[in-house]
Amino acid sequence: MTGHNPSSRANTTRHLTPSIAAAAILFIVAGIQYLVVETVAASAWETPAYSYAFNFISDLGAPDCSTFQGREICSPLHTVMNAGFIVQGVLFVVASVLLQRLASGRARNIYLAIALIYGVGMVLVG
Fold this sequence. Notes:
With 126 residues, this protein is mainly alpha-helical. The protein has four helices and two strands.
């Protein structure tokens, strides 16, 4: 009798665990909060208005008003943007750690190293 063996399917299918669900939620929250914070910080610029075509995202986190590379930079909500960078980096690292068990051996180490580099970089930008 040929048929489907349920035990073999269980070995090839990954089930949604609480840590995977939490990681997915953290990745989503990290992305959404970043976009919201960027929009709020950009909308606070008045003179000159923030330009998505001309300014850099890092301009939103600049703490001082100045001219840099021909751009007038004056971000009234720089602390909000910098907090957004930090929150995004921390949430990314936490989510990555929750997912690290899906990889093994060398791949896990590389994955965690890259996630940590990215997260630390975001925190340092903030």
